[in-house]
Design a protein that fits this description.
The longest helix has 23 residues. With 194 residues, this protein is an alpha/beta fold. It is built from six helices and five strands; from the N terminus they run αβααααβββαβ. 46% of the residues lie in helices and 20% in strands. The termini are far apart. Strands 1, 2, 3, 4 and 5 form a five-stranded mixed beta sheet that branches. α6 links the parallel β4 and β5.
Length: 194
Amino acid sequence: MGDDNTNQKRRKSKWATLYSNMTIAQTEQRLGFRIRSLKPIPVKTMIANASKDLGKDTQAIEQTKAKVYDRIVEHLQVEGFPTEADPDFKEVNINYLVHSAISPILADFICRTGRGSVQLQCEKEIASTDGETGGMEEFIVVDLTVGEENFIFIVEAKRSSLGLAMKQCLLVMKDMSDNNGGSTVYRFVTTGDS
């Protein structure tokens, strides 16, 4: 059996440069803007905008929020809080927590819309249309259509360094939008702490 590096070398990549190996300068050149020029959109604003698109069923939204909260609490009771202070901590610990939070949201979306084709994909390979950049993403949902708009939802779980994860986040957003006809892409990065 080979180690991870040997297995990665054997696998033929669909891209020239792995997202995580790009510098900030290379990322900004590829994106065509400076990362520090971005203005964040508060989650509360995103939820308010999504509520307009998904309808005003506030009771259903509150029920989903309660399910998410309950799943997170259950996860923390069973697994404990994911922290690098734990010597057994691995990135997969964060992935389990993220999965606990995403599952009820996606399940409710599928039930409310009847869209059985919408599925959570884990460890999805992403490559740019020109083959220059690519990588693996922890969680991705592609087939989200609300009204006339298509959306893509991506979550990247990182062990540490939200700053380094931001460049990967932006590159994946660009490539996913390019690969899906300019769809709106929502992306979240978490370390489990933030």
